[in-house]
Amino acid sequence: MADNLQLLFDAPLLIVQLLLDGILIGAIFAVAAYGMALVWGVMNVINVVQGEYVMLGGFIAFQLTLWDINPFLGVPVAAVILFVLGIAIYYGIIRRVVDKDLFISLLATFGLSILMQQLMNQIWGSQVRTAQSGLSTWFLFDYQVTVSQVKLVAFAGALMIGVLLILFLKRTRLGQAIRATAQNPRAARVLGIDTDRVFAATYGINAALCGAAGAFVVMAYSVHPYTGLPYTVRSFMIVVVAGLGNLPAVILAGLGLGASETMAGFILGVQFQVAFVFCLLVIILVFRNTMLGRKRRYLK
Amino acid sequence: MLGRLLRTCLAVLGLAALAAGPANAKVEGDTIYLGAAISLTGKYAANGEHTQRGYDLAVKMINDAGGVTVDGKQYKLAVIYYDDESTPARGAQLAERLINQDGVEYMLGPYSSGLTEAMAPVTEQYGIPMIEANGASISLFQNGYKYLFAVLSTTEQYLASSVALAAELAEREGRDPSTLTLAAAFENDPFSQDIRTGVLADSEKYGITVVIDDQLPPELNDMAATLAKVKALKPDVLVVSGHDKGASLAIRQIEEMRVDVPMLALTHCDSADIIGNFGAAAEYTLCSSQWAPTLSYSDDLFGSAGDFAVLFEETYGYAPPYQAAESAAAVQVFADAFERAGSFDKDAVRDAIAATKMETFYGNIEFDETGRNIAKPMVLYQVQDGNYVVVAPTKWAEAEVRYPTPPWAER
Predict the structure, then answer these.
(1) Is A185:A98 a contact under the CB 8 Å cutoff?
(2) pLDDT tens track for B50-83
(3) pTM for the complete prediction?
(4) Is residue A299 included in any domain, yes or no?
(5) Which of A181, B116, B281, B352 holds its CA 20 to 30 A away from the CA of B248?
């Protein structure tokens, strides 16, 4: 560990490289986390199949490359297909568990994630898949820092999706209905909002966000039927840190998580990278709890 | 009333007892049944299928050639398959089922070290000989098992040849191998860690300094942290193993980050299809393999290694990965052992397997007392102009190794 720190002092450009890599992957985590924050905030459902939707989006973009279609087209295509699928899954399954105990919806989405893993395994096989975007790499500081263009595009895409989502929630009627339902579903229903439709749209939007993220994942990293879990865990963590209904915070938490994770992987060794994520989660939860406790005392 | 109920109960119990007894399906009529639990669904499904196709092709070829002659009588081979869903617990259950319900007395191995590890205690307990072709972990052969045999090379040999090659090339350049530095990144699972042990042991033998020794978590999708270190420390050799995902990640990110390293050695290149997926970026990569279609091995059943490759491709429509080749060889070993044993007694068959000494298209097969095949080395491919070319060991090399890998700025 000391050697690795020493290395950072000797070659400070490494820090730039690590932060860049971390922030770029963090942006993709953030997109999946927007969706989780929405579904959690509006429907009070913790959607454990998040990562599988990401993988499915990746496989759809991969399938397009098999037909010689540019994988970038996979971003909108995967979003649309997953939107439709999300709505279908809402009416088929989620609708029946949405007002039940949180535990029931956890179980239902967990079951769904196993089902989706197996289906993807049947359709695309258990190989690791990647799609070639055809973009190259930029070099800074005489080859010492490299930025892959596809990750940069994914980063820009993630930010753009975030802005569009905020505008959608603020400006459109459906967005306002979603926010109203998140505040108080019963009051929203009294005021004439069809909450069932709002839930369906929310769940569909969540799936679409994951699909778009997945299309970026397959171009910048890789997809496999069984590696959705890290995306679920990280979106969960980002939402816990950022809080529900605070999209700018979700973006920041996503970028921060990506950057700190990569730095930790370098300094502590990659074997502790995921352990670091979980330790961070525990620390943040404890911290938030004491902060809340303080506030409560103050209110008394 | 009560009496009648009791009688019915007893009758049902009696029937159940009859049904539970072994059906003794090991040899029926003129067919010898082998049992196998294979991953047809779940995360190993792709390689499970290669395994099954290897078994099936060998069974078909042996039967077409007249079958197996035991004690003057001709027998056909057949395999009873179950799907172990890629989970060790299911594999162990199915081994019990094959032995107790189907009465199988000869087993073919499953896919992967993990599954083999789960099934071997069961076959061992019942004294059922198992010839496996896809469990390479060295730990399988450190338990004193008597009925487990493996036709493939074990894990500690996987990348050791790359360390030897690096030392050899350094000497040729007039450089002392002990001045070399090596970076290792291995996935944190038993199989890859076994390979790591072999690499570290060999590095120590040549006095090579290991400057990076990272363990990649199985769920990791990004090697940037490790590769940034490689870039800063500039080792002479980079060794990566993490199944298909490790191979894909390494090639993609080494290109993206322009990591210059004179020698890169991987496992799982062909199953990750690095040439098809990454094209020119895969050039110069060294890949360890159990078998290659270009090797000069041959036997009477399949002909040469190349003939096997042609036959496999004609039958299944794709070039055989080594997983299929080694699986076919396992069936050949059984056929040979039955003929030499001249009986179906499972211990006689076991002893015949232990005494195996044969040449196959897959390589020579001869077991040591722990059940490992010690007659076949691992080979090392290099990606040269979009093809896998065997470059080591020197005895089977088709071409000279291209070394060192030129820096990215010149590629």
Answers:
(1) no
(2) 999 999 999 999 999 999 999 888 999 999 999 9
(3) 0.77
(4) no
(5) B116
